[in-house]
Amino acid sequence: MTNVNPNFVLMVEDLTVSFDGFKAVNGLSFEVEPNECRVMIGPNGAGKTTVLDLICGRTRATSGSVRFKGKELLTMREDQIVLAGVGRKFQTPSVYEDLSVFENLELSYPRGHSVFGSLFFRRDAEVKTRIAEIAETIFLADLLDEKAAFLSHGQKQWLEIGMLLIQDPELLMLDEPVAGMSVAERKKTAELLNRIIDHRSVIVIEHDMGFVEDIATRVTVLHQGQTLSEGSMERVKNDPKVIEVYLGH
Amino acid sequence: MFADYSMGELTAIFAMQGFAGLILFSIFVLMALGLAIIFGQMGVINMAHGEFLILGAYVTYITSHVFQDVMPGLFSIYFFVAMILAFIASGALGMFVEWALIRHLYKRPLDTLLATWGLSLILQQAYRSIFGAREVGVTIPDWMMGSVYLTDMIEVPINGLFVMGLTVIIFAAVGALMFRSTWGRSMRAVVQNRTMAEGVGIDSEKIDRLTFGLGCGIAGVAGSAFTMIGSTGPTAGQQYIVDTFLVVVFGGAGSLLGLVASAFSISQAQSILEFFLSGSMAKVLTLLAVVGILMLRPQGLFTLKLRK
Amino acid sequence: MLIDRKSRFLTREEMIGFAILAVVIFLVLPLALDTFRLNLFGKYLTYAFVAVGLVLCWGAGGILSLGQGVFFGLGGYGMAMFLKLEASTPEATAIQSTPGIPDFMDWNQLTALPWWWEPFHSLAFTMIAVVIVPVAVAFIIGVAMFRRRVGGVYFAIITQALAAILTILIIGQQGFTGGLNGITDLRTLKGWDIRSDEAKEILYFVNGALLFACLFVAQYVRRSKLGRLLIAMRDQEDRVRFSGYDVASFKVFVFCLGAAFAGIGGAMFTLQVGFMSPTLVGIVPSIEMVIFAAVGGRLSIIGAVYGTLLVNWAKTTFSESFPELWLFGLGALFIAVVMAFPNGLAGLWSEQIMPRLRKRTGGGNGAPASPAPVAGLSEVRKAAAE
């Protein structure tokens, strides 16, 4: 279990968190390989979002270890984890409503993240070009000066994805990226996601099985904070344990 | 520093300072109880809490004069009448303030703080205009005067004992109300999950108003008790507001047990230090210690896991 | 293809706002007022330093400190200690039982200058200390609180407690601090009589210039990415963290900056008014400084200056003629500014007056048309500095 494979981007070992005795995640272990797209599925309350929270430092683990490229994340602050190269998209779109689309993207640009760095941050040609590029990718090029508050739900989701893109993380974690979207938006988003998960490792939580089948390299099924089944979509789909949990009695 | 005192004297000093601390403790508990309900349960910062307390004190002052002038025969029991009137007056004003001011600001706690500070200035000036800037005192009924001698060196004043007894009764009543009554259940339900509480048919606006009113009413009773051991002035309430907030925060907002523990430790520390240092240094050191501990442990002494 | 998105230091509207304020402070007030009144307005302007710092901390960053009086006081006391030492030469204090120490120390039976007073013989040290000491205190408080993610009302209560503690300490230790009376009877600065009319006028202009320096610093911060981060943090602290920013250190920075401004204001107060006392440190002055910023508009640094002038002018006028009414008025102001005008004067200006002016002049003043007014708070931020 402890064979440290340097080829893994992320190694989660025996991860456990307990809230007042209730173990939301219980002895979970899994690895993510470079360029892998890992999809996590499972019934409500299985602990999927909590796993992402634990990896990105939002919730403190009770025990276990999460190593990103060999670095232990559990002792790091959220911002340090982000700067190390782990990006996270939340379930509900969370963008800065009072700032413009341009400014939203600019804040995620990976430069000037210290106090004085941000005080003397210059909006040079490089920054502007990069933001224009990203805006093009996320279908918001015409809305750069719009306040984020005025965007539609789908546009906010795209903006948040754009904020992650500009950050250029090696490991990207997406929590239900197509939830609450219209059919047209959903299609566009799937296209967008397919493009951006190309050169990096990704962990996705998703319920839309068609979408999952489309993007997943491997699937992990969580149940009551533990791995129920793991492997290719094909294998997981035919696993009797999974069928039992999902179809129930 | 202890060398000048004999063992017996030291014991007596500690006992008497400890008792003085117990009176301070009672005041803290009485003041903080109302705040613990308003701040601890509702999350509302009421900077005018001290003024609600003083309202209770002035009501007691008026009642004592009415009894003196109109029915001097019943003077020995005026205090109990005054206490009820103080509860009604402060509670009613509290419910009015909740309706006029607080309910519009539930989502803006920092603005509530500023608005209630404005309210406290207005109340202070109102007291000054009505009762004058000088402090007023009430005549204590005869049976409350004097002291009890525990040993020949240790004496405790009866009015202090009375206030302590009162504190115990009020505390027990509030505890029962919060954890045994229907209102208490509704209030805790609203605190934990407003939407859900509304869903099961609790009128959350009414609960808010009653809760705020109750907190203010308790402050009024505290003010009433306050007159038994000290005089009342228009700005007396403001002098206690910092201590009271610290007591509540230090105890861990929302926990009645924490409130008692924190009021006890702060009052004891202060009154024992007071004997060896000047009063102001005792207070500075106590407050600094509390602030220091709060910086290390912001959630206070006792607390339930707070959900965000 | 893209609109030029240079982060300009001042927009056209802001430039006009700064220019008008400069005219008011450097021309209108000095020409319209006699030395006594001008000195009074100079005193008001020292509070504006605090108010500008509060706009950054509270308006932009969402951190409400009710203890800004602590920093104002630390700056003011630092300057007062220097001036007091200069006024307490052995010759001038020959009648004391210990000549050469400040008079209040002699009254309190002190026979030697406390060690921590010694460095305040030096003007250079004092000038550094009036900024560094408040910043150091703010840094300690900020690190302790913000690292543990204490904010909101808890932070407000703790800072208020600190204001109370410092006041009690100053009053209690009167041998070292001058007690309730404060440090009074200050005369000269390096031999220059600060009580003369001429000195008062010069100090007024020095004060104005320093205030403008602070305004420019504040403007720079607001215009920088840090300024946008503060707004982002106020609304969605968690998201900022997950964009890779250490939220606490940004809060510490802006809190320290506010403390530095307050310290400078305090030092200028001492110089212009000629004394420093605990009545400027405690709970009441600290929270009043918040109302100055709120009346001006919590999001507008220039509004904060006007708010300070207006409230203080009203205070002086009313408490001279109707002392009873003033507290009612001030109390009502606290309530009104929260309930009815959360954006203060700046809000009134940009939401009421500006649109009307635009309509009258046909909107042809070159300023970009702002989108429909939605969230009141966010609108002002754009046109804030007017």
From TrEMBL, chain A:
Keyword Isomerase attributed: no
Classification via InterPro entries: ABC_AA/LPS_Transport, ABC_transporter-like_ATP-bd, ABC_transptr_urea_ATP-bd_UrtD, BCA_ABC_TP_C, P-loop_NTPase
Pfam families documented for this protein: ABC_tran (PF00005), BCA_ABC_TP_C (PF12399)
Domain ABC transporter: 10-249
GO CC annotation: plasma membrane
CDD domains the record matches: ABC_Mj1267_LivG_branched
Keywords: ATP-binding, Nucleotide-binding, Transport
Classification via PROSITE patterns: ABC_TRANSPORTER_2 (PS50893)
GO MF annotation terms: ATP binding; ATP hydrolysis activity
Top-level lineage group: Bacteria
Protein name, entry field: Urea transport system ATP-binding protein
Species of provenance: Rhodovulum euryhalinum
From TrEMBL, chain B:
One Gene Ontology term from the biological process aspect of the record: amino acid transport
One GO MF term: transmembrane transporter activity
Entry-linked InterPro entries: ABC_transp_permease, ABC_UrtB_bac, BCAA_transport_permease
Assigned keywords, A-Z: Amino-acid transport, Cell membrane, Membrane, Transmembrane, Transmembrane helix, Transport
Membrane topology (UniProt): Multi-pass membrane protein
Pfam families with a match to the protein in the record: BPD_transp_2
GO cellular component, one term: plasma membrane
TM region positions: 12-40, 52-71, 77-97, 158-179, 210-229, 241-263, 275-296
Subcellular location: Cell membrane
Family designation: Belongs to the binding-protein-dependent transport system permease family. LivHM subfamily.
PANTHER family: ABC TRANSPORTER PERMEASE PROTEIN, BRANCHED-CHAIN AMINO ACID TRANSPORT SYSTEM PERMEASE PROTEIN LIVH
Entry protein name: Amino acid/amide ABC transporter membrane protein 1 (HAAT family)
Organism listed in the record: Rhodovulum euryhalinum
UniProtKB/TrEMBL annotation, chain C:
Record InterPro entries: ABC_transp_permease, ABC_transptr_urea_perm_UrtC, LivM-like
This protein's UniProt keywords: Cell membrane, Membrane, Transmembrane, Transmembrane helix
Topological category with respect to the lipid bilayer: Multi-pass membrane protein
Subcellular localization(s) per the UniProt record: Cell membrane
Main subcellular localisation: membrane
One MF term in the entry's GO annotations: branched-chain amino acid transmembrane transporter activity
Comp. bias intervals (Low complexity): 367-376
NCBIfam families: urea_trans_UrtC (TIGR03408)
Protein name, as recorded: Amino acid/amide ABC transporter membrane protein 2 (HAAT family)
